[in-house]
Amino acid sequence: MSDYASTEPGGEPLSAWDYRSLFLRDETAFDKFYCPYCDIRLSSVLIYETGELSKSPHFSARFGAHRYGCDGTPDSVPSHVNEPTKRHYVKSVMHAPEVLITRPAPRASNTARNSRSEPPTPDEVRRRRREAGVAGLARPRTYLLQPLVEVRNAVLAEGYELFGRDHLHEGKRNEWFKKNLKQMPLTLDDDTNYDDAFRTPRYINWNNDRIYHGKGVVIGLDGCYKITSEIAAKVPNLAKIQFFVKINTSALLNQNSPRSHHALCQRLNDLCQPDKTIKWYAYGRPAIGGRGCDVIVDSLDYIYIK
Q1: Which of 18, 183, 221, 224 could cross-link to 14 by cystine, CB 3.0-4.6 Å?
Q2: Polar residues bias: where (predicted)?
């Protein structure tokens, strides 16, 4: 299996998480994929699932083997087939996105780098793989919050399966969570990892953007929504105060917004019920507001509710 593909022979390589982000954002789907290095046909796996994933999206070489020593990865990336795993959650095989980018992933090019119909030469295959590694495409990216949540939740699910949910094994279970999540790098507005990136309002990072999560209810306001948190914010030198996620839909939504943004706003509107508790995730940097501590969401890509 491999993490990268193009939509035509010799085309621009994008990661499986890039293609999944395009699908989740505006339902962009492609019929055919090719190895961006040796041009064989690839099959997509889990990219177009609508529910939350428990394994990584990827590409399978089910139409035929790779050519000339290619394994579907850039030179700088160890093959998933040959690389001995250092993590405990082998069952899930989560090859996580490592960068949250602040702009939409580029759509796959419709213009091939090479219009010839014959397969690339061994030298061409080696050159493509080498250039892909140097260009930095080896780090899977996403501009949506949902894939990052999917990865973390899959790791947590694996830990609960291994240790159970009872309090007797809570210490070992939490140690396993922290150890494995710390091994997974993640670049937000700084370089961190999946353990440090996800926080409850009890543990706020005041200097960097982080992914906050909790449970609460949705409150509809004039042109925006506010989501409460059952856990109060812990603020230095102050008593605990209320924590809110604020989404200014009047500023973030317009007629050119992707369908996923319109669907999210409709769902928020439907959830405006005082007895309806939701699980929420929001990316941003908290600040003390007039009535509490607020995370103001800068993009509808940075909010995920379930």
Answers
A1: 18
A2: 108-118
Three-state SS letters, the chain: CECEEECCCCCCCEEHHHHHHHHHHHCCCCCCEECCCCCCEEEEECCCCCCCCCCCCEEECCCCCCCCCCCCCCCCCCCCCCCCCCCCCCCCCCCCCCEECCCCCCCCCCCCCCCCCCCCCHHHHHHHHHHHHHCCCCCCEECCHHHHHHHHHHHHHHHHHHHCCCHHHHHHHHHHHHHHHHCCEEECCCEEEHHHHEECCCCCCCCCCEEEEEEECEEEECCEEEEECCCCECCCCCCCECEEEEECHHHHCCCCCCHHHHHHHHHHHHCCCCCCCEEEEEEECCEECCCCEEEECCCHHHEEEC
- Which residues are within 8 A (CB) of 32 and not within 5 positions of it... i.e. 6 or more apart? 7, 8, 41
**Comparing 13-22, 86-95, 144-153, which segment has the lowest mean pLDDT?**
86-95
Asked whether the whole model's pTM tops 0.85, one would answer: no
CATH 2.40.50 residue ranges of the chain are 201-306
For residue range 152-206, list pLDDT tens digits in order: 998 999 899 888 888 888 899 999 999 999 999 999 999 999 999 999 999 999 9
